[in-house]
Amino acid sequence: MGKVIVVTGGSRGIGAATAQLAAQRGYAVCVNYRENQAAADAVVQRIEDIGGTAIAVAADVGSEADVMRMFAFVDQELGPLTALVNNAGIVEPQMRVDEMDGGRLARIFATNIGGCFLCAREAVRRMSTRYGGAGGAIVNVSSRAARLGSPGEYVDYAASKGAIDTLTIGLAREVATEGIRVNAVRPGVIYTDIHASGGEPERVDRVKETVPMKRGGHASEVAHAILWLLSDEAAYSTGTFIDVTGGA
Ligand code: NAP
Fold first, then answer.
1. Residue 73 burial (10 A CB sphere; 0-12, 13-18, 19+)
2. pLDDT given for residue 50 in this prediction
3. How high is the pLDDT of residue 88?
4. Which residues form the pocket of ligand 1, taking CB atoms under 6 Å from any ligand atom?
5. Sign (positive/negative) of CA torsion 155, 156, 162, 165?
6. Average of per-residue pLDDT across 161-172
7. Which of 53, 125, 202, 240 is the residue whose CA sits 20 to 30 A from 85?
8. How far is the CA of 177 from the centre of ligand 1 (A)?
9. Mean pLDDT, residues 99-120
10. Annotated catalytic, 131?
11. pLDDT of residue 18
12. Of ligand 1's atoms, which has the minimum distance to the CA of residue 16?
C-alpha cells in the first residue's frame, strides 16, 4: 500500500514546503487550501513535475462539512490515509486582547483549534486499528507562541497554539495503542505570508535579532522536522515536540 497524506493549508508557506517534501518521500499528497486555488495548483504542478501524485482540495478546516467532504474525496482519489499534517492556521491584525471582538476570536479558534480537532478525528477514524485501519502518524503545527503568549500582537493565536500542544499530548496518549503517533512542531519566526496577514510583512526581519541564531527560519526547515516525525525513524516518539526556532 502507498503512503497517503493530507496537508492542511498545503498551498503556501510551511504547508507547501511540507507537501513537496512529502511527495519527494513517496507520499501521494492532498494539498488542502481555503481560497487561493492558483497557489494550490502550483504546488500540485511542482509535485507532478518530479513524478509525484497530488490533488488540490478546497476545504475550510473550520467547517465540519468541508472537512468530511475532503477526507471522503481523499479516500476515493488517493486511497487509505496514512498521515495527516494539521498545518492550516491563521492570525489576524496585531492588537491587544482588550481590543479583540468575538468574531475574530471565533475565526481564530474555529480554524486553529477546531480545524485540527476535526481533521484529527477524521484521520483517527481511518488510521486507527480500533476502526480496522493500518495505523499512521499525525503532526500538528503549533508555534513557539504557545510558550511566549504573543503579548501586544495576538494572544488569541498564541492561546490557540497552546490548545494544539494539549491536543497533541492528549490524543497521542489516547491512540498510542492503536498504531497512531501524534507529535507537533513549534516553529519560531519563519519567512511566510502569515506575517502580512498579521499586518506586518517584515515581522521576521524585525524580530530576528532576538533569535540566538540571528536569523529567521525557512519553511523547508520546518518541513524536514515534520517529515522526520512522520517517518519510521520517529517510531518510538509520540506526544512530543520539536522546536524549530533557531534556539529561541
Ligand atoms: P501562510 O503562509 O499564511 O499559509 C497559510 C496556509 O493555510 C495557506 O495554504 C492557506 O490557504 C491555508 N489556510 C488558511 N486558513 C485555512 C482554512 N480555514 N482552511 C484551510 N486552509 C486554510 O502560513 P504559514 O506561515 O505557512 O503557517 C502555517 C502554520 O505554521 C500555521 O499553523 C501557523 O500558525 C504555523 N506557524 C507559522 C509560523 C511563521 O512564522 N510563519 C510560526 C509558528 C507557527 P489559502 O492560500 O487558500 O488561504
1. middle
2. 97
3. 98
4. 8-9, 11-15, 32-36, 39, 60-62, 87-90, 111, 115, 141, 143, 187, 189-190, 192-194, 197
5. negative
6. 98
7. 202
8. 31
9. 98
10. no
11. 99
12. 9
Domain 3-244 is found in CATH 2.30.30.30: no
Share of the chain above pLDDT 90, in %: 100
Supply the residue whose CA is at minimum distance from atom 46 of ligand 1.
36
Cα 148 to ligand 1 centre (Å): 19
The answer, yes or no, to whether residue 1 has pLDDT greater than 70, is no
What is the number of the ligand 1 atom nearest to the C-alpha of 58? 20
Distance from C-alpha of 131 to C-alpha of 127, rounded to nearest angstrom:
7
Closest ligand 1 atom to Cα of 10:
9
pLDDT tens-digit readout, 55-74:
999 999 999 999 999 999 99
Q: How far is the CA of 70 from the centre of ligand 1 (A)?
A: 18
> Which of the residues 154, 157, 191, 236 is marked catalytic?
157
Mean pLDDT of 160-187: 98
| 7: enclosing H helix or E strand | strand 3-7
- Give the pLDDT of residue 27: 98
Q: For residue 29, which of 39, 38, 14, 18 has the smallest C-alpha distance?
A: 18
Q: Output the pLDDT for position 152.
A: 97
Cα separation of 155 and 150, whole Å?
5
Instruction: Supply the DSSP string of 99-162, one letter for each residue.
Output: G--HHHHHHHHIIIIIHHHHHHHHHHHHH-GGGT---EEEEEE--THHHH--TTT-HHHHHHHH
Cell numbers placing 130: 480500533
* Ligand 1 centroid from CA 90, angstroms: 6
CA of 174 to the centre of ligand 1 (A): 27
Break the chain into its structural domains and give their ranges: 3-244
Q: Residue whose CA is closest, atom 32 of ligand 1?
A: 89
Three cell numbers, residue 112: 486553529
